[in-house]
Amino acid sequence: QVQLVESGGGSVQFGGSLRLSCVATGSTLHYYNVGWFRQVPGKGREGVSCITGTFDKIDYIESVKGRFTIGRDTGKNAVYLQMDNLEPDDTGVYYCATDCFALTSPNSRTIEARPLSYWGQGTQVTVSS
Questions:
Q1: For 127, phi and psi rounded to 5 degrees?
Q2: Which one in 25, 33, 86, 119 has a CA-CA gap of 20 to 30 Å to 46?
Q3: pLDDT tens per residue across span 22-59
Q4: What's the pLDDT at 1?
Q5: Rounded CA separation 49/92 (Å)
Q6: CA neighbours within 13 Å on the CB side: how many for 67?
């Protein structure tokens, strides 16, 4: 079983940066798809980015492309999310989860997680204008 722990959240101003980390225990994260998701009270969960296991194929939703970077920190058995040029709409609780995948259509891309994925407890990100 995989346990995930997120860290790195905080409060920043518009245009600031944060780096989130998702550290895993119980298994080697390299072989898992790992994604970042965010949730705002009163709104549904939104997938932000996903990196696939082994081949590290990366997907982002359109609103964060060019501002967020997902990657692996193999030495720490972790996946990070570097967030630059943060905007107030990026505010939310950020979760990492395994078994993410991208759903792509001609006009949109969403990041989803399969039903039996593992989830962390979340870390709060607040961006003020």
A1: -120, 120
A2: 25
A3: 999 999 998 999 999 999 888 889 999 999 998 889 99
A4: 86
A5: 15
A6: 17
